Queue: 2 jobs
Job 1
Amino acid sequence: MLLQAIIDAIAVGALYALVAVGLGLVFGVMRLINFAYGEVITAGAYSLYVTRNLPLSVSVVICFAVCVVMSLLIEEIAFRPLRGASPATTLVATFAVAIALEAVWLIAFTPQGKTADLLATLNQSATHGSVHIRWLTITELAAGIVLLGGTALILARTTIGLQMRAAATDFRAARLLGVRANRVIRFAFVLAGVLAAVVSLLLTVSQPLVTPTFGLDVTILALVGAVLGGIDRLASATAGGFLIGFLISFLGDELPSSLSSFSTSFTFGVVILALLLRPAGLFAPLGQSSVDRV
Amino acid sequence: MSEPLLELLGVEARYSAVPVVRGVSLRVSACEIVGLIGPNGAGKTTTLLAIMGAVPHVRGEIRLAGRPITGQAPERTVSDGVALVPEGRHIYASLTVWENLRLGLAGRSARDGVDEDLEWIHGLFPVVEQFRDRQAGALSGGQQQQLAIARALIAAPRVLLLDEPSLGLAPSVIDTVLGALTEIRQRDVAILLVEQRAQLIAGFADRTHVLNNGQIRMSLTPAEAKDTDRMIAAYLS
Amino acid sequence: MRRLLAGRELAAPVLLIVVVALIGSATSVSTQQNFITALVSVAIVIGLYVFMGNSGVISFGQISFVAVGAYVAGELTIPTQPKHFVLSNLWSVLQNTSVGNVPSLAIAAGVGALFALLVGIPLMRLSGLSAGIATFAVLEITNNLLTFWPKIAPQSGQTLSLVPTTTGLFQAAAGAVVAAVVAFAYQSTRRGRLLRASREDHSAALGIGVEVHRERLIAFTLSGAISGLAGGLLVHQIGSVTPDQVFLELTFLSLAMLVFGGVGSLWGATVGAVLISLLDSYLLQAENGLQIGFFKLTLPSGASDLILGVLMVVVLIVRPRGLTGGREWDLSLPRVLRRRARPVEVAEAEEPVEVAGGR
């Protein structure tokens, strides 16, 4: 069902867009890829498991708290000491953090994973008829709109948002104006943490089994999408994340069964083509050369 | 005036292995404009950046109203009361004029008096009020320069550092800028002005130092500034 | 004399390889495997280094060349009879050809090089992050195809087994030495140096007429060859291979080994591979219980990743340029006999790896 596939794909796209925003926010101020972002999402999911016997609202609040704290901790422990290092170094370092954290989950929660099915009711269908829309899909879309809109508003209207935008464009100049580097960076990580919490909540609905690689898979794809779109600008990164999510879901549904196991190849084939055609990012402003990009 | 607001004592600064500033000492007091001129690569910009804390390796002492600020993070120095108008202005082209100005507020430590200061700034540079909601990138070079100074001023600095403000500006705009500097000086601000246009500044500032190869070769009063031979000698030394 | 002196910086990596092999030969059979793994890792990491170290471009795709090399070498050396049964859908070329051990390694290197060349022609135009992502995409596609395309590999990611285990200490060491010699030869040539120049300053290199795209392609292809060879060594060590074994975890591990040792030098690649590989092996063994003196150390499952990850972060914080700082080690004759050294040092004050549009 084409319409069904499109609707589902849009919802998945919204989810990936949120992850892309989280990655883009941190990249904007720090110019590095936060591979460990997936672990924040995983942490949120595991916290839902740990608090599964508490009232739902309490679980949700704790989930947000865990994600924000986790995000800030990663910044403090892994990113801060690496602030001047080369891209290869920070890439490997954040990946190492991700691997280390995955091992922690493995040890603490076993490789089989734990179930966190707090919001399973969202899996129910909200519509009748041939087009089957789950409450989850509606929630994902709504969450996407609200959070993306909210982030955009924060960036556009608040002082800290203004400072973040300035820092993302030229950090040095911003500091020379008195913008506090640590404050801006921490705020980016807090926002990213909030977004991660929402993603972890939504992901556990369709994937109640939380395994150590829970967040990593989404993060890697969202990262690919963000770079594809143009990670140096939040808007293009978000669009790229959305596109990847959409593609993965849509191709997974619509490819003929003989080819469906190759949906990964198709998606990444599209990625390569897009990068070759527009290395500065699909949604980057025209005329921007790839040399200017990080 | 009395004690200097800004003092540099034997300051050495380098980015990597090679020192760019090799022992500079100078002082600027409130209500003073001190000029810093010299050929390209002399270390003028680095001196200013060293004061701001933006150069990784700095030796010697930099004092603000007697208190050492060497090695401080730039944002701290700004909130302590030193503002920089960087070379090339470094305006955020994609932000509006007003947003650029608001950024300058980040370094302001005095909570109140913002409206009064704004009024004064608008008086100095009417274009800033006029093009409030325009994208800063759409402004002309001269207008951007005025915005850059306005942005520095909104932080209510005690010391104002300017790096080549006349670069690429038409003479009429330069006059506006210099006039503004004179007014700013009246407000007990200490001004350190780096410039390429030697003659212009030497005749304007209370005192002008000639920097060459990282060291101060000569200091000139406005009267002595007319002596071109001396100036050339200093540049070539 | 000049030749001898020029080979100075090769001495350290080769010596280390030989030492590792010698130590390995003196240990028990089971421990020997750790040393063989270390040597195979050296080959893999040198493959990675030849491209990344010289061009400064981050690539996540080199392991796909290892994968291709492993599968090709494996499939060509499985005895034909069981092959017809187990891998009935393979391409007839792979189905019907059977070669010996060393030829399979050579073919693995060749196929790796070819694959790299094909992939590199479009991809070498990219830099920085887009190159990283594009090469990652290659890794994903290769893995996907090796898992689900019956013409080149077993069905649905099943293990390719029955490969003769011909990689012992000698073969592994020999392979590693070959990799080191080839890498060193390349970086000593004018081409290699031109590429390194582009790594320091892309625009300047273009300005003096360096065809950066072509030089990168050459390094990439060479890297493919060495990686393919390493893949052949790998599959002949384990006797089997699955797509997952040559995918994300190996990519991270090899990248970590290189960065840990120092991206900019062959010596760094060798040291990093040996140290991390041995550490990883021992940690994995500790998860199953390791006898240390009087007591038995049993780490919880997964602790090896944790320790390795933490160690990696700590080292990178303390020595961001890796253990060797990206420099070769000059094991030369005493100063009195030496003429003025010609350093192959690539480490410099600023960022060695490409970051276009930095802050």
Job 2
Amino acid sequence: MSDDAAAAPEPWQIMRQNMEIITLGIPWGRRLGFRVTRVEKGRVWGTQPWKERLVGDPDTGVIHGGVLTGFLDNLCGTAAGSALSDARYVSTLDLRIDYMRPADPRRDILGEAECYHLTRNVCFTHAWAYHESRDRVIATAAGAFAINMPRPMNTMRPGNGE
Amino acid sequence: MASEPTLTRAEEVAAFIARTPLAQELGMRCEVMGDEMTAIMPFQDKLIGNITIRAIHGGAIGAFLELTAQAQVFLAAGHLTRPPRPINLTIDYLRQAHAKDLYARATITKMGRRMCSVQAEAWQDERTKPVTTLLAHFMVSGD
């Protein structure tokens, strides 16, 4: 409507400007070591580095499936939050993961997630994990997220303890 | 068949947890009683997913449940040479997991020759109020 409304940044714009702090308030996210690398409205990209401590089978050095669960859960949740026009907390209702092929050992995993539908209370998301491109996926995810209470915009910027 | 001293199934489960880096990272352990098993993940700050409400991260709970399901497959199948490989899984997040220990049990719904179906649930204060449940399929032989 007014110029003021047009000037007010949307949540995804604040997320894009502060990508490095998206995992800051998430100790388990820091432990996994993943990063969000790109944000658009309702769509995010990220990287999950290979780490010795995240391995699921020491004979092969392949990262455990549970790491992908955490990574894709977070990417889906971030995509859900970025799709909203006012900042809200979201929480995972359910998450379905299909493992297409094992990840290569000692290799970073790339991921992307999109929020493909929104209702008043729920965000529906898809995500993909791969090494090179979505033509050769390691795993896919489908997650539904509950839209919860409003989130103060300042919690999405640095220096606010979140 | 190799003529090494055979491990009991409980020892196989313990060996699986001990040699799996992610299980060690989560700090989990398994208590085996005959053919029953309870997995325990003591609370640690690094497991938190939201520092404002100090809830355990859904991804950490998912990984804990997936490892619990794998351990249960080790217990049921016995003498697996490799960890069971997940085909797919569904996780339902029912309640917030607070900053305290988490427990989990898994049930093998069906053990086939190549694949098996497993259900698992995690709880904190009351077993009848699960925090998170998991339904998963694993490959148990070949690939």
